[in-house]
Amino acid sequence: MVTRRNILITGASSGLGEGMARQFAARGRNLALCARRLDRLTALRDQLLAAHPGITVSVRALDVNDHPRVFEVVKALDEELGGLDRVIVNAGLGKGQPIGTGRFDANLQTANTNFTAALAQCEAAMELFRARNAGHLVVISSMSAMRGLPRNLTTYAASKAGVAALAEGIRADVLRKPITVTTIYPGYIATEMTGRAGRTPLLAPAEKAIPLLVRAIEREPAEAKVPAWPWVPLGFLLRHLPLGVVAKMG
């Protein structure tokens, strides 16, 4: 297994991004952390350096919907850390309303952040990896990507399915190269985003789920559902159940 020393994580100021940063720092990895909230990133950097003084942590303010800025930041952090080994495309948005209820603005924002901005991040990362013929691209999708879902999840699920297909297409393109592409499908993990969603079934505590997430990334599989239980069997069911049953679950 290749050890990736220099890791970039987008959306690192909270939730899964922050949790992954803490886990990788404990493993002695150097980090490049990006998010819109620079104050939170700076506080996180200070905490990580205090706990793990042997690592390097660089931070940048980044709105991933500013596509030219995505390329600038990825290149700058690549130079600052002496070459990125892994880029984790994690920044995302959980807004959404039923289609046709007058909230195209919320659905468009979700689609742009979860898919178009993810495309920009993948492009920026793959430019680096193709140039050096090495690297690990990680795309954070969602178990919601397994099927089309109703109500507030419709656009979110579609955007996460789209980004999973994007990652698979990139993987197909580099199958014969020493570049690895991993798609992670997190189940319901307790974060600020899931907290805003209200009552969520099968919610896994972050302190248990995020270490599993990092371990899955370290294995560098093509795909992983995290936590494996119950999401591997549930993922199979979601793919094959009648739509009427899925609609009730959603």
TrEMBL record:
Belongs to the short-chain dehydrogenases/reductases (SDR) family. It comes from Amycolatopsis cynarae. Residues 5-192 form the Ketoreductase domain. It comes from the Bacteria. Keywords: Oxidoreductase. This is SDR family oxidoreductase. It holds the Pfam family adh_short.
